What does this fold into?
Amino acid sequence: MYQLLNDLSIIEVSSFVASPTAGLYCAQMGAEVIRVDYKAGGLDYDRYMLTREGRSLSWENLNRAKKSVALDLRSGEGRELCVELAARTGQCITNLPEKSFLSHSAMKAAQPERAPDMTSVRIMGWHDGRQAMDFTVNAASGYPLMTGPEDWDMATAPPVNQVLPAWDFITGAYCAFALLAALRHRDATGEGSEVRVPLGDVAIGTVANSGMMAEMLYRGSDRERLGNAIWGAFGRDFRSKDGVRFMVAALTPKQWDGLVEAFDLAGPIGELETELEVDFSAGDRPRFENRHRLFELFQTAALSRDWAELEARMASHGCTFERYRTAHEAANDPVLVADNPLFGPSPANPSGFEYPAARSFANLPGRAPDDPAPAPFLGQHSEEVLAEKLGLSSGAIGKLVDAGTVALSDKDTIYHR
Amino acid sequence: MYQLLNDLSIIEVSSFVASPTAGLYCAQMGAEVIRVDYKAGGLDYDRYMLTREGRSLSWENLNRAKKSVALDLRSGEGRELCVELAARTGQCITNLPEKSFLSHSAMKAAQPERAPDMTSVRIMGWHDGRQAMDFTVNAASGYPLMTGPEDWDMATAPPVNQVLPAWDFITGAYCAFALLAALRHRDATGEGSEVRVPLGDVAIGTVANSGMMAEMLYRGSDRERLGNAIWGAFGRDFRSKDGVRFMVAALTPKQWDGLVEAFDLAGPIGELETELEVDFSAGDRPRFENRHRLFELFQTAALSRDWAELEARMASHGCTFERYRTAHEAANDPVLVADNPLFGPSPANPSGFEYPAARSFANLPGRAPDDPAPAPFLGQHSEEVLAEKLGLSSGAIGKLVDAGTVALSDKDTIYHR
It folds into this structure.
């Protein structure tokens, strides 16, 4: 938590991963992010994993440091309150469809006279309005059919989905950026923006930006399967004598020289250079093109040493490497978590379960970060926000609660799901 | 290309993927992004894939719409010029180590009196200074040991690396966001910022933000293998009678009902509900928990129909689905590329090869986007930038070129690599 954005209020009408992530990054930088949800919880309120009390560990991490307003978004009155909140605030992040009640034009039309010109970021599926989610855009991207063991037959290899919803997280970060870019433009000109970011465009656009699209068109066919090898450079996973699996990479001359030393392979590699008439120090290309021969040498050398020795040798030679962890190992790894200033305590989680929580990925030397803030209970800030942002009296809010248009904190709700 | 950031100049001293991506997103929004490189090209100047003329298709896509200045960054004089450029501009994105010549304090010390207080974003490996790259932080994250076929034995399953360098792209987008957040703070207070973003923290922090870390600590063990299934919801890949592989997902009630209709499975699913005493309409949980039985029904139904029929049925029922493409198919798919307004022509690529290029992922209805701009030739803007930003005369620049401190456009260079 740093206070770089503490002048900013954002209404977030969100579900799933990408859209809450955009709000999360802003909240971790000090923005007041007010998530507005259907009064019984949005579509993601019961996303796995659930605690025994029915609280979502997914929701409570993607919505840290936000406020929560719970409205009956299925009623006209609840929707009007949501639009009014966005309009008065002037900034909105959402993944509701353009044709929903929360269109940019509806928010703009509801703006009071002196509100900053409406700026909204809308996460869509595909550019043409078709629905999509991380796993479906990923299927279109080409990556799943390139993933998995090298020796699978290209013609029959099944797709392998990445478990990380990478497109959601790229889109979330990009939308936080796009919002600030649009606000910078508004600060300079007074002009707000409607910004639409299709998840599908993030995927196929990344295929283009990475150079992979140009590559496919240039070669006129698919790339050969690589397994766990790094495209265009030297790197792959290896196994030590005692069975530890680790990834190594050597992209710079220094990394390559260090790796050869760490594996004590100067001799055999010199012989291979003579045999193949290449110079492996000349750059990525000879190392990548002859990777199978090199991998053989490195794997044989790895199998002659235990991990502790290999790790010490690679560390002392400044190599770039990492041991594979399972997710459970990673969560319990002191180097990654307990001893990492990224993490702080988070004792007030809605689930009641205590565990380390992440601060912003960015750290600012010389400024002390606050501890990570917990996610709200659903509706925890309904009264506060309706009073502050819309000027409603406590009597008026009480009537809305009685009418079922507004819900208050679900702290004492017991979920059976 | 939209002009939301056209008041902004950024010095980018970059290589590989994350750092150039941060600059690319800013450039696609209209910022003047000046990439400063070693005069013979940075570490990524020959990244695969290379054309027959030795031009990198990776480099020319990750550096679109930027300017290029080529300096002898191994000499004191070249380094001073680089620091001075960053200091005068006031904004810098880099992945050079903090202990390099381009430390934040060095840039700050070189600032002329009226320059905006230095704001720099530095991409690091791990938070503690250890080197890392996408593939190595991924090894630590836990994802590779969760990826791949469901029937692989948990105890012996090899890691499966994701081919997409997802951590690089998340980090790139996040750094573009962090830069604008720091600039917003400077606009409000006059105070610049040093912002450090460790790639490793983006990875392990995402594990936390996604709820996966809490999940692992809560369950006290690793998650079961899922293969291509979606965690906590209904979704997997299926194969049609004519062998087309596709992904389907149903997270909302509407998506689920549509899918059951599209696959004509109301009867068998009703029977299964009776047998298992569950209601699959009740939410993600019963569908996920009984996924193997459901997958069996859907796969059998899929195998009784050709893809054309399945696709038409799923489309008419508003399902969320996508056919798997290879990367080569994706690049040639008109729906994804040729007919997608994300893409525009890019005729002036350094490689001379013409192909569609991506605009910003964000589109702004009501504003016409410019066509994607090509990447520069290395050093193409050395003279222009040194004259404009540092006020050097053409005579002074000529001397620097003669001395080998500055290089001009490599347009006519023939690479043998």
About this structure: Chain A touches chain B through 162 residues (CB under 8 Å). Chain A has two domains: 9-207+346-407, 234-323. The CA atoms of residues 116 and 128 of chain A lie 29 Å apart. Chain A has a mean pLDDT of 97.
